Amino acid sequence: GGETLHVPGRYWKQTIITKPLTLIGESGATFYNEQEFGLDPFPAPITLAGPGYGTVSLVNINVEGRVDGHHYSSIGGGVVGGGFDALELHQSNVSAPWYWRWHLLCAGGPGISVAVDRVLLVNSTVTASAGKSDCCDWTPAAAGIDAPGSIVELYGSIVTGAPFLDPCRRDFCPDQWVMDLSAGVGIRARCLMAYGSLYSGG
Prior knowledge:
The protein contains one helix and 21 strands. It has about 200 residues and is mostly beta strands. Strands 1, 3, 4, 6, 7, 9, 10, 14, 15, 18 and 20 form an eleven-stranded parallel sheet that branches. Strands 2, 5, 8, 11, 12, 16, 19 and 21 form an eight-stranded parallel sheet that branches. It is globular and about 50 Å long.
């Protein structure tokens, strides 16, 4: 059950979903966040804060954002939270907000980071954002989907964890072992089922 809303094809501000809901987007419907100041982590474009039951379905919805790393050192994710039985994506694209500038160490964010029983993706993409650093040091990346308590099902979908990028702006960088170690995985889940889908770490 739950209400169905049709979302016009334009940009929408950060949204908190508190009840079972299906969002059906017109072409170009995008939830986006680019606020200048606030407390870490950078808030997700969509946050789930449900009553403990029901399903949130995103249909033909885009999620993205831009982060000023001079004000934030970490990213919550593209879709975060919980309080529902399931999160479903159909023909949707979720990308964690990305750093357009950074200072010292800025950790990447997961595409989806939720505490629900089930995550379902159908013909959708989910992408984590890379960590950034202007020092030669570890900058943790993030998983594409970070849902360690969930059953994750993929059908014709692509999920990508973030790579370790731009570790420094000097004449030397960490060796490949350090870069690989700090890259994000594709999916963290209690149980994963993938059919005609791709998932990979950074």
